[in-house]
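Cross-check.
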Amino acid sequence: MTATNAPLAMDAAAIGRATKRIAHEITERNADVANLALIGIVRRGVRLAERLANLLRSEKGISIPVGTLDISSYRDDDRAVNSGPQVLGRDIPFSLDGRNVILVDDVLYTGRTVRAALDAIADLGRPNSVQLAVLVDRGERELPIRADFVGKNIHAPVGQRVFVRLEEVDGVDAVVMGEPRQQAV
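Predicted model, tokenized:
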């Protein structure tokens, strides 16, 4: 968890502005908003996807479908030996085929979560395109993955985490820098 005096990187107003800007950039890049679908990565990516869908509905008057994806077992850094990947949880009540999918997550860091989500999406259908929207990009990638839409770039000191807190999950909207990760002895 984070310390009570953890540095605040974004407050509720900044998160609201960033989310609105991302929604606007999505419509600028995707003229056919009726062909869009949003897929949020569990947990906070789902809430951000829902917020973006509401903003797009307000701006364009079109309901954009939102799906959820839990890619835990697709992760290559946490897979048990001899177990194949499975989508643990998904609620995607629409076809991905031919759609422009916006994959939504809270923090982009190493790129491994996004890589796992791309694998899961490939197993679920054949979208026309997949674009990535993140609230925070903290850099330091291990894989050649970049976001198409970024709320804010944040540099966190080595060993520190960036925590996105959302009202729907945590009771507050904030992005904070977390305690350094404990090293195994």
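Residues 58 and 125 are 28 Å apart (CA to CA). Residues 79-87 have pLDDT under 50 and may be disordered. Passed to J.P. for a second look.
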